[in-house]
Amino acid sequence: MFEIRLIKNDASKAYNITPLISSVSWDSNLSLRSVIEFSIIWNDTVHFPANPIELGDLVVILKEGVEVNRGIVVNENLSGRGNISYTAYDYAWYLGKSKSVYQFNLSAKQAVERVLNDFGMPIGNILTMSTKINKVYIQQSPAEIIKDIIKQFERETGNKVLTELREGKIYIENMMDMIVIGTFKISENVQQYNILSNPLGAERTRNIEDMRNRIKIILTEQDNFETIALEQDTVNASRYGLLEETFKIDAEDSAKARQVAKILLKRLNKIHETNSITLMGDVKFKAGRLFDVVEPLTGMQGRYMITECKHEVNQGQHIMNLTLTLPEDVI
């Protein structure tokens, strides 16, 4: 069973507002921010319970006593005597609303920790990222800065990183460790089933528009450039046509150019997919996690990254809509 709790922004009181909730949904994507949307039953009759929700309050979603998501209420929408709808964002919302200036000559992990500490974001765990960050960021949001730092680490190492919030703390971890298997129950007193045994809908799109079978790494100085690494799949190029991408690299990273070219070719040199699937809900599913899919109608088969995940609970029924992409398609 789901429970929705409200904690006042001064922490003076807490309420179980589950009986007031008519519907609730929460979603996540590959940005740091996740969103909770919910509406409460309300009218102005004399004996109807007072609405305790105010902007700035904290909303926490729990399932069987375990926290699923939390967010700060930032929007309220009233329309006559109808239900009142609210939008809440997790703490990473603050990282996207500010602008700052940073100059780094640190490892990627140290740079991320510095930004998070400056903005008071509690840290759960950050994996070791030794990539050197030597860059100036001007008038960019903390969220944009952290995203760029992680991208530099991923391109240098070929490792994919998962960034998400859990119980109000940020975790930056190896994506390959975050593979989810989903289950559901029709009712509390029956056995669990694998969510793929009962898909509610699926759609698959494949394309070669974003395929790149030749990668050039160039070093630029003033108005001149030099190609310092080139990787190509000649077999693929003869089959689909030559599709080239060029990336710039800083002089201090030029020794890694060939390695970077190999990593980028591996990621880009393939048919790309964007798929969607609707399933019975499981709270373990979030954007950035990996999911092994076998779906016979569309032919989806393999390990996919969840790039968007929306959960909906309405009248006790929990379903989720997933957008799935091959992990190599996200760079």
Automatic annotation (TrEMBL):
<feature type="domain" description="YqbQ/XkdQ">
    <location>
        <begin position="25"/>
        <end position="324"/>
    </location>
</feature>
<protein>
    <recommendedName>
        <fullName>YqbQ/XkdQ domain-containing protein</fullName>
    </recommendedName>
</protein>
<dbReference type="Pfam" id="PF24032">
    <property type="entry name" value="YQBQ"/>
</dbReference>
<dbReference type="InterPro" id="IPR056937">
    <property type="entry name" value="YqbQ/XkdQ"/>
</dbReference>
